[in-house]
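lol ok so funny story. i was supposed to be doing the assay writeup but got distracted and ended up predicting the structure for this chain instead. priorities right. anyway since i did it might as well share w the group, maybe its usefull for someone
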Amino acid sequence: MSDRVLRDLKIKTNVVKRLQKDLTVSSKEVAAQQARIDKLQAENGDPYTIKKQFEVLDECKMIIPDTQRRLEDARVDLRQLLEAHADLSESAEYKDAQAILSA
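and the output, tada:
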C-alpha cells in the first residue's frame, strides 16, 4: 500500500510541476507574441499578417485559463492525497509534494 501511495504522490507532484511550467511558458509566449505584434505595428507591417498574429495571440491567451484550472485541480488532488496519508510525512516524496504546494 505504501509503495503505491508513494508512487501516486510522485506522479501527482510531477503533474503539478509540469502544469506550473506550462503556465509559465504560456505566459511568456503571450508576452512574446504581443511584442511581435507591437513590432509589426510599429513598422507598419502587412495588415493581413498583423491580423493573423492577433489570432495567434488569442489562441495563446485561451490556453492560460485552461492550464490554470488544471493546475488548481492537480493541486487539490495532491493536497487531498497528502492529508489522507500524513503518516508518510517522513518520506522524500511527501516532502517534495509539500514543497511544490507551498511554492
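The helical segments are 2-42, 47-84, 92-102. The chain has a mean pLDDT of 94.
back to the writeup now i swear
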